Amino acid sequence: MTGELESSNRELARATRYFNENEVQPKLITTDSKPFFSTDDFEKESRLNPDDIYVQRQLGLHYESKGDYDSAKEVYLREVRKNPGNPDAHYFLGSLYANLGEMQKAKFSFEEALYIDPNHGATIEAISMFMDSSEEKDFSNDLLMYSSKKAPDGPAKHIANIREAMGANNYIEALNLSQEAVEKYPQQTSFVQLVGENQLKLGRV
Q1: Is the full-model pTM beyond 0.85?
Q2: How far apart are CA 105 and CA 129, in angstroms?
Q3: Of 65, 75, 138, 149, which is most buried by a Cβ count within 10 Å?
Q4: Domain end point (choices 114, 135, 152)
Q5: Mean pLDDT of successive 10-residue stretches along the chain, which has 205 residues
């Protein structure tokens, strides 16, 4: 397996709860000595590894990169049907819907992921980033609240508390909460971002 795809699969697996150690070995194609993977390569690996959800994820991401969202959706819907108890499958589909602006469908998929695992890292990471508009904030807060109710001491609850402090302009408290959360949940990069945001608000950056 080439370094690029192997690294991508490892990062994806670490970001989600479930990890499959099966490796992918797509054929290397070169054009002017620059390696890349063709659609045929990804589709072939998908056929050879039908039960590896992370191989299927790579195919879906490839389709997304080509703007073929219908094909990507077919991949993710198939994985949801095959792996209804794996939160990663619902997260993959929710991420696609969110990227397409279909927020109600995205919310349903993210809720499914959080129903299975209220502390699902990739889902919480994703929903914590929706802050560009009041609609996105409501979308994010609703899902964080959903997770918080199922896991009162999980990362979603900490994010909600930090946002509440920031909303009250209490940036010192928000910063302290963010730093505590970084130590407790070192894999959740959203807390690192919140540390930076509060440092900026306090003029420390």
Answers
A1: no
A2: 17
A3: 75
A4: 152
A5: 44 44 43 70 96 97 97 98 98 97 96 97 93 88 94 92 93 95 91 93 86
